[in-house]
């Protein structure tokens, strides 16, 4: 029997939808979509969701609800991650999601998940198609507000959610266009401090394969492979050698926002924050080379969304 399920991941920068059929123990995509809504706009400074950010998220979720009805989805799970963990007015956000989502699938609501839950869902979605012989894996889900680092083989062995992400780091440190050397140095110092704590909790030394998830990682792969358009199928499970990865990161960090936006694979809502994401990736790449001898990134288009759907598949 085929089950039609959906997962919605609402993060700091984007809200994402996966509608999938569960067929013979595998997920078959029906519809997969990402919208940049910048829900976490200003959260790091104010501790609250901005009304316009909730408005953008409501608009996207309304469209997603219509898709759930059109595709006759049986069950849906919506999770909110880093930004929703940090704010004082999240009740306003959850009242909105209950109204919009419940209209499509009665009783459906959004939920905040912990960093550990986020890491576990990301890991399950990311490694499902990988050869177990390539493990243990270190899976890195680089979001707008946080970065989840997970190590495991068949299951999660250790995880940590670090409060560094492309939006949070940009808002905190990278104010000029392009960023000044001093701003970049300050951002690196923040990332190194957070990674020092994270990698003290998550032992990456025995890992063999680094798997990167989310928009910064997929865009870096598209740029490293000189894609003229964003090609999800070509990006999925693509590999980026360490030297190529660092070169792309350095290039992005030094660009203006307009220069980044002009790059063919760049999503228009990512150009202003991907420099912050590139700094996180650079520092991770150096740590993984030093600690585990890993000098290649594997990029997966399957991530927390797939993990969310699996979590309600029964």
TrEMBL record:
The keyword Amino-acid biosynthesis does not apply. Pfam families: Ppx-GppA. Its EC number is 3.6.1.11. It is an enzyme of class 3 (hydrolase). It catalyses: [phosphate](n) + H2O = [phosphate](n-1) + phosphate + H(+). It comes from the Bacteria. Keywords: Hydrolase. GO terms for molecular function: exopolyphosphatase activity. The keyword Metal-binding does not apply. InterPro entries: ATPase_NBD, GppA/Ppx_hydrolase, Ppx_GppA_N. Residues 18-308 form the Ppx/GppA phosphatase N-terminal domain. Homodimer. Belongs to the GppA/Ppx family. This is Exopolyphosphatase 2.
